[in-house]
Write a structure and sequence with these properties.
Layout: H1 2-39, H2 41-65, H3 71-84, H4 89-111, H5 114-118, H6 120-142, H7 145-159, H8 161-168, H9 180-183
Helix pairs in contact: 1-7, 1-8, 2-3, 2-4, 2-6, 3-4, 4-6, 7-8
């Protein structure tokens, strides 16, 4: 009888240690992978920085042809300021969408200005270079390394047993930067 109790107790202890090992391994492994994904977040911030620079270039041209307090100029300036904040991804994504809309509207409005049409250099900026840079930066932001890694992490974590264990222990999905192009 004593042997039977010791065997059952040993088996129970083994199961506890086995469960603890699985939980520890899942937590440690997924936490490390999440840190790797988060370390690539700088690529996304670099892309948003490039978008701010393009916005500032648009504002520079606009200042030569429009009033400083023009509504479109003011809106784009506010969008750039919002993109400068390291805030929640949802807030940044909305600011990025407003930035895209306002930048295109300002470029369109600028292209119709007689003073711009008379200026060969600024006309080239507004009609060719800045729209192309805006489009390229939007594409690069959508395809930022962070978004790709975050999507892969979330998918892997949700499809594996160890990922479900890690989720139970407090490892959450990584937040993705959903752009206007991704949402459609």
């Amino acid at each position: 009888m004593h042997r039977k109790i010791n065997a059952v107790l040993a088996f129970a202890v083994m199961l506890v240690f086995l469960a603890a090992a699985v939980m520890w391994g899942a937590y440690k492994g997924w936490a490390g992978e999440r840190r790797q994904v988060e370390s690539s977040m700088n690529t996304l911030y670099e892309m948003l920085g490039a978008r701010r620079e393009i916005g500032n270039n648009i504002l520079t041209v606009a200042q030569r042809h429009l009033q400083k307090e023009d509504a479109l100029v003011r809106s784009l300036r506010e969008d750039i300021a919002e993109l400068s904040k390291n805030s929640d991804f949802d807030v940044l994504a909305k600011a990025n969408a407003r930035f895209e809309r306002d930048a295109k509207a300002l470029l369109e409005y600028l292209s119709r200005q007689p003073s711009l049409q008379a200026d060969e250099r600024d006309s080239m900026y507004v009609l060719q270079m800045l729209p192309q840079a805006l489009e390229e930066s939007a594409r690069m932001t959508e395809q930022a390394e962070y978004n790709q890694q975050a999507a892969a992490f979330n998918q892997n974590m949700n499809s594996r047993f160890s990922g479900r264990v890690a989720r139970f222990l407090g490892i959450d999905d990584t937040q993705q930067f959903i752009t206007q192009g991704d949402a459609q």
